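Dear all,

This email documents one entry for the complex benchmark we are building for the journal club exercise. For each entry we list the sequence lines for every component of the assembly. Then comes the predicted three-dimensional structure of the complex as a C-alpha cell string, followed by one or two observations. Please use this as the template for your own entries, and keep the labels exactly as they appear.
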Amino acid sequence: MFTTLATLAALTLAYQGESDTTVAVQAGARLDVNNFGGEIAVRTWSQNSVRVRASHSTRDRVDVSASATAVSVRTSGRRGPSSIVELQITAPTWMALTLSGVYTDITVEGAGDAVTAESVQGDVTVTGGNGNISLKSVEGSVTLSKTHGRIEITTVEGDVTVSDAVGEISAESVDGDLRLLHIEASSVDVNTVDGDITYDGTIRDGGRYRLSTHDGDVTVSVPPNASVVVSVATFDGEFDASFPVNLTRAGKHRFSFTIGGGSARLELETFDGNIRLRRPGQLTEPAQPERKPKHDNPY
Amino acid sequence: MSDTWTDRLSEYLDGELGGAERIALEAHLAGCAVCAAALEELRRVVARARALDDRPPAADLWPAIAEQIGVSSRAHAARGLEAPRARRRLSFTIPQLAAASVALALLSGGGAWLLVGRHQPERNPSVATPGPKAFGVNAGPADPRYAAAVADLELVMERGRGRLDTATVRVIEKNLAIIDRAIHDAQRALAADPANAYLNLHLAEQMRRKLELLRQVNALAARS
C-alpha cells in the first residue's frame, strides 16, 4: 500500500511543473493572457507588478514576457497547444485585462479597468471592471458583478448573470437565461432565443431598455416613480403586472402603457412566454423560474 | 401594423418633415407605442448601416474563408477598401424595416463579402446608395441573398468543422437548430398575419442571430 502511494506521489511530482514569475509593469500597460486549457484566475493588488503562478504538466510551458505596454502570458505544449495549465495571476488593479482560452475557465476578481475575456468551453466570471467590459463564451456561463462601464456579453449556450452593474448593457445568448440584477443603466439591450430574462434595476429618464426572447418569460421590475412608455409584445403568452396599468392596444400581439411622463422606453418581447411586471423587491429568486403555462394570447 | 404615420418615420429621422408635420408626428409618437418602437428600431438600423462605412469585415476572418472557398481575398479586400464611402441616406417604410435589419446583418460581416463577391459581383460592398429597394422587402429565410449567405457560411463551417472540438460542434449544431425552430415559429405565425410588425421584426432578429452564430463559428474555426 505504502509503495503504491509512494509511486503515485513520485509520478505526480514527475509530471507536475510549477512556476512562479513576477515582473514589474509600467503604468498603463495591459495584461494579455492566452491559455489553451485549464484556468485563468486573476486577482488584483496595489503593487505595480504582475505575479504569475502556474501549475502544469512538465510537457507544457508558460512564457511570461513584459514590454513597456503589456505583459504577455502564453502557454504552449511541446507539439502545439498546452494541455491543462492552471494560471494564478495577481495584477495591479489599474491594469486592463485581455484573457482568452479554449477549454478554459476564466475568473477575475477586483479588476479596476477594462476587461476582455473569451473562452470556447468554459465559464467566465468577473468581479469588478471599469470601462469596456467584453465577455464571451460559446459553451459556458458568464457572470459579471460590481462593474461600471460599457458591458457587452455574448454566449451561445449558457446563462448570463449581471449584478450590481452601472453603465450600458448589451447581452446575448442563444440557449440560456439572462439575469440582470441591481442594475443602474440608461441603455439595456438583451436577447436570447431559448431562455428567460429577468431585469431588476433602474428605469432612467430618457433611457432605452429592450428585453427580447423567443421562448421564455420576461420579468421586469418597474420602480413606482419610473417615467416610461412600456411596449409589450407576446405572441403566445400572458401578461401580468403586480400594479395597475392602463393598457392601450397597439396592434395585434402588442400593447403599451405609460407610467409617469413616459420619458424612457421599455420594450418587452417574447414570442412564446409570459411577461411579468413587478415592483422592486417583488422579483422572486429566478434560479428556478416557473415555466409559462400554454395559454392563448388574450390580446 | 401601420397607421398614417408609419411611412413617414424615415423622413422624420432624416429631418425632412415640415414643422407642422414634425410636431404632429411627435405628438403621435407620444401615444403610439408601435410607431415609437418602430422609430427606435429604425434608428438602430440606420446607426448600424452608417457604422458599416467604418467597419469593414473582420480582417482575420475573411482570408480564411476566402481560402476555403477558393476565391481571392485580396481582390475583395482591395475593392472594398477603395470603395467610395459616401454618406448614405437611408429611408425605410415600416414594412421594409425587417428586411433592412436582415440585409444589414448580411452586409456587416464576412457573409456580406461572400454575398457581394459571389452573388452580386457588380455591387459595391459598402452599399453607398441604398434606398428602400436596395434592401428589398422580402428578406425572409427564402430570400435568395439570405439563403445564399447562409449556404456559404454553412459550407465554410462544414469545411472547418474538423478544426473544432466535437463537443463544440455539437453545441453549435444544437443551437443552430434552436434558432431554426425560432425562425420556423415566426414564419408560421407570419403566414397567418403577414403584416404584423412584431412578427416581421422578430423573424428578422432570429435570421440575424443565425448569421451571427455561423460567422462566429467560422471565425472560431479559422483561429483554431
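Observations: Chain B touches chain A at residues 1, 30-34, 36-37, 40, 165, 167-168, 171-172, 174-175, 178-179, 182, 185-186, 189, 193, 196-199, 202, 205-206, 209, 213, 216, 220, 224 (CB under 8 Å). Chain B is about 70% helix and 0% strand.
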